[in-house]
Amino acid sequence: MAKLKSTFKNMFLSLFTICFVVAVLLAQVNKITAKPIAEAKAKKLENAIREVVPPFDNNPVAEAYKIPDGAGDSLTIYPAKKGDEWVGFAVTSYSNNAFGGTIQIIVGFDKDNRIVNYSVLSHAETPGLGAKVVQWFKDTSKPGQCIIGRDLSKEKLSVSKDGGNVDAITASTITSRAFLEAVNKAYAAYVNTIAGNAASGATELSKDIVPEETTKNEKDIASDTTINKNDKTTGGEEHAQ
Amino acid sequence: MRNNINVLINGIVKENPTFVLLLGMCPTLATTSSALNGMSMGLATLFVLTCSNIAISSLKNLIPDMVRIPAFIVVIAAFVTIVEMVMNAYLPALADSLGIFIPLIVVNCIVLGRAESFASKNNVISSLFDGLGIGIGFTLALTVLGALREFLGTGKIFSITVYPENYGSLIFVLAPGAFIVLGYLIAIFNKLQKKTN
Amino acid sequence: MEIIGIIIVAVFVNNIVFSQFLGICPFLGVSKKIDTAIGMSAAVTFVITLSTLVTYLIQKGILENFGLEYLQTITFILVIAALVQMVEIIIKKISPPLYQALGVYLPLITTNCIILGVAILVIQKDFNLVESIVYAISTAIGYSMALLIFSSIREQLALSKVPKAMQGVPIALLTAGILAMAFMGFSGIDQVFK
User: Fold this and answer.
1) Hey, of B28, B107, B184, which one would you mutate to test binding to chain C, going by the most C CBs within 10 A of its CB?
2) In chain C, alpha helices (H)
3) Are residues C73 and B80, on separate chains, in Cβ contact within 8 Å?
4) So what's the pLDDT on residue B141?
């Protein structure tokens, strides 16, 4: 077949056909992959929750709600329940004062104000220095730097350089400060939740769900994890549950 | 057939995109912080390159010369978007670590360069082999660079510990290390090539 | 205050060349002489500002409204290609000498990943329109600065004795590596402005 001449009609038809075919193709691939993408994101959050609270048998993502942290901000809480008893809360929290900008974490608390575990959802710290935050505060063999099992009703966390009780990451005090700030913030939200529960009874927790109102930073967490922006229906279903 | 194998080998050695043509430097430097990341980026590019080479060489007569560049770009962008969506769906962790460099395969000069200089002039089969050759050359280069940086920086290769991490020199995993390791690799490649000539 | 933070981070801390690794190909290509480096910087600055503005509006106005985010890459690259073509025609008319100097590299701006990279980054970072434009301009400033520093070093380098295998790109990459180390010193500087 001879090559098409560069007339206006040929150029237009050729480009138009290519664009059309490509658009149809992409729409199909998008249809196929939209669900797995949403599932992968939901799973990432669920795994993070599973890691930071005691074993549970409910669906914390579906029962998530927002609670003020007492400092003019609100955080998302994922209640973990076994049967009808609640066994712990996972709280997503953040700090904008880390070395590389924002750090987002999820912290789990049990019934007795103790930290069960934490997981860093996203950070932009220097590899080898601040990036150690992912593991540093979990090392149970070094009680000075480990925050797991600490009872926050007795002591607020702060780095030892500021006269506090936690050893900061070597050469990364700013990262450590920001991390502990986020943990303390999460604890404040946790305390507010407990106070709310005592007043209204644990079973009514799910009535407090405020799904759509998100602050800017919370929106980042939400879009990273639960709600897939590409597929509004999936997000809607989750909230409808 | 022999000709096609020559085309394949040509892409891996003589016209190695990273060490000889010096194309596609951005992903080369940015995604090679570990051997696995480098290899994944190489494979993603390999896929896009092969598909776009095949598509463009089979469509070459239907695309008028004056609009060929935009047409090529649309075809390439389509394959890149497919890779992006599939990775997000089935390999989310990898998609996170490669980040913005997956959509940026679109502007990788290697892909457009091969479309323009090879696929638009040759038949489908040779274009397929050219895509594979260049793609494999790119993947190899990225894997070697990633492995070296990972080894020097953290004492591991493909996450398997070779020597204790504390003896590693972190700078090789960070930005400066990318430039320095690649600089030395190209110098070594130059030296070897001159010897064989 | 946030705006100042964005500028400092984009120009120094996360310098587009030395820490984000975007736009390396033209960076190595045009940095042999200071003159071409300046021309390239000007072209990139102009295109990047314009294209970020246009792609941002398209993303918010069309793609997100109709749930077509998956067409982002393809739309952005087409818009950028068209814009570059326009800039090329305009420069050809206004300043033929500049066009002569940049002739080869202007079409390459399309495949300069900085332009597409910044367009995608501002969407990922959830910037508003003003922040996006500020980010685009400061990124371009960071790029221009990197190009200027680098090209002046390379002009000197051309006169010095370099081992044969290291000549050209290898030594340039090593230089860039050392510069990148210098730029690492800026990390955390934005904390001061909080």
Assistant:
1) B107
2) 2-8, 24-30, 34-58, 72-94, 96-102, 105-108, 113-124, 129-157, 169-184
3) yes
4) 93
> What residues make up the domain containing A222?
51-240
C28, pLDDT greater than 90: no
In a domain, A46, yes or no: no
Residue B176: which of C22, C124, C180 has the nearest Cβ?
A: C180
Decide if A73 is inside a domain.
yes
Alpha helices in B66-197 (DSSP H): 68-90, 92-98, 109-114, 124-154, 175-196
Q: Which residues sit opposite A91 in a β-bridge?
A: A77, A107
If one counts the domains in chain A, the total is: 1
pLDDT, one tens digit per residue, over C37-63 is 887 888 888 889 989 999 999 999 888
- Give the tens place of pLDDT for each residue, C155-185: 888 888 888 888 888 999 999 999 999 988 8
ipTM for the whole complex: 0.85
Determine, yes or no, domain membership for A195: yes
More confident residue, A5 or A198: A5
A232 interfacial to chain C (CB closer than 8 Å) = yes
Give residue B177's pLDDT band: very low, low, confident or very high (50, 70, 90).
Answer: very high
The phi and psi torsions of A62 (rounded to 5 degrees) equal -70, -30
C114–chain B nearest CA distance, Å:
9
Q: Is A23 on the interface with C (CB under 8 A)?
A: yes
Mean pLDDT of chain B, nearest integer: 88
How far from A208 is each of A66, A196, A238, A240, CA to CA, in Å? 8, 10, 15, 13
Instruction: Report C:113-172 residues touching A (Cβ under 8 A).
Output: 126
CA distance C28 to chain B (A): 9
Q: Would you say residue A64 lies in a domain?
A: yes
Q: Calculate how close chain B gets to A223, using CA atoms only, in Å.
A: 14
Closest approach of C176 to chain B, Cα-based (Å): 6
- A213 CB-near residues (< 8 Å, 6+ apart): A66
pLDDT digits (tens, 9 = 90+) for B23-55: 888 888 988 988 998 999 999 999 999 999 999
Contact list in A for residue C67 (CB cut-off 8 A) is 230, 232
